[in-house]
Amino acid sequence: MMGLYVLSLYSIIMKYTNLPLKSGTKIESKDHRGIVIGDIHGCIFTLENLLRELGSKDGFNPPQGRKLFSVGDLNDKGLNSLKVLRWAQKLHQDEKLYVVDSNHGRRLARRIHNECKMGGAVEDSIRELKKVTNEEMLEIGQFLANLPAYITLQSSKDKPYIIAHAAASSRLMAPGYKLSLRERNFFLSAETFRWSGEETVITGHVTVKEPLKEMHDNKGSTVIRLDTGVNEGNSLSAYLIEEDRFVSVPTDPRDLSQK
Fold it and tell me: Could you read off the pLDDT of 28-59 as tens digits, one per residue?
């Protein structure tokens, strides 16, 4: 049934094959304080709880005077990938949220556009997307396909930040440098990397028990890890840039059980 559903879209999506490979983008957010959210993985109830804990009045929009950033992996594993994706699309459209590409996001975009085989955690998201129209599915696919590999963020602090899903490399982020597919995948999927730069790098991807800072050399090169295993029943975490502190909320059981 799943295969037939995807094949039914074939004539519509052929024009979207060969997905874009956007490199990085630069964002200035000096008038708004920044909040970076870790891997969400379809856990919409936990996301709402985190946003309220951060000061959101409705559990949907950012707190007043804030800009939201996401390290990606919005979908798969949790029960509500579609709701998380709709949240991200709406806030991204309103310039309240900025998201980087990620291995799970890219996989879903490729799956929607018929550029990869069936199988894996992405099929949970595909089953949810069967509830929407073909047009909305394609809009979600295009939203994910056009996300940048990384964001260079100039906040109200003097020191810039790099937001990437898995890893970063100064060499690959040189001005005007065009990433190859393999190099771009490094930002989305690398399990380990060493950082030496003045920017603080904020990532997800590798699960840690609690959000943490890693010093990668004796010059203060810093990497922040934000994937705290929300889909494993642990927590969802965020980093408040200007305050230099973490906020975490436990996984809401409704995200992991249909009961």
Answer: 877 678 999 999 999 999 999 999 999 999 99
In the chain, count of helices (H) and strands (E)?
8, 11
Domain-by-domain residue ranges, the chain?
A: 2-255
Phi, psi of 89 (to 5 degrees): -60, -45
Residue type, 235: S
Which residue's entry shows tokens 């980093």?
239
145, 20 contact by CB (below 8 A):
yes
Q: How far is CA 95 from the centre of its chain?
A: 15
Classified as helix, coil or strand, 249 is strand
User: Residue 10 and residue 54: Cα distance in Å, rounded?
Assistant: 42
Between CA 245 and CA 124 the distance in angstroms is: 33
The backbone torsions φ and ψ at residue 50, rounded to the nearest 5 degrees and listed phi first, read -65, -45
pLDDT digits (tens, 9 = 90+) for 192-220: 999 988 899 999 999 999 999 998 877 77
Rounded to the nearest angstrom, the gap between the alpha carbon of residue 231 and the centroid of all alpha carbons in its chain is 14
By CB atoms closer than 10 A (0-12, 13-18, 19+), residue 174 is exposed
Q: Are 162 and 152 spatial neighbours (Cβ–Cβ below 8 Å)? A: yes
SS3 12: helix
Confidence (pTM): 0.89
Q: What share of the chain is helix, strand, coil (3-state, %, to 5)?
A: 35, 20, 45
- Measured between alpha carbons, how far is 198 from 201 in angstroms, rounded to an integer? 9
What would be the CATH architecture of the domain defined by 2-255? 4-Layer Sandwich (3.60)
- Tokens representing 224 are 């922040």
Structure tokens belonging to residue 202: 């904020």
Average pLDDT value over all residues in the chain = 88
